[in-house]
User: Fold this.
Amino acid sequence: MKLVKYIIIAGTFGFAMPTHAQIEEKPSLIERFKQKKSKIQAKKRAKAAYKEWEKNYKQRQHDHYMMQDNQTKQMMLDGQKQARRQAKGRTHSWWWRMRNRL
Assistant:
């Protein structure tokens, strides 16, 4: 009989006390909207900052190139061309590869 009383008391006590999720206040609709808007604005600011950095980087690269003499400029161009070829994964044209297979 005592066990039943304890079970009943524990059950009523459990129903009477709110859980942590019920106590926690959720942000209102306006607050959620402000949070979402601030997140979008932060993304836009980050994208704009990256674009500005990239523009400055390319300008510095161009200025550095323009200060070189003609022979160095040609070496730099050849290096860029080779880098593009390696990035594509093909260092030789299709006819060069076919000629060497025969």
User: Anything to note?
Assistant: Helices lie at 2-16, 20-23, 29-66, 70-88, 94-101.
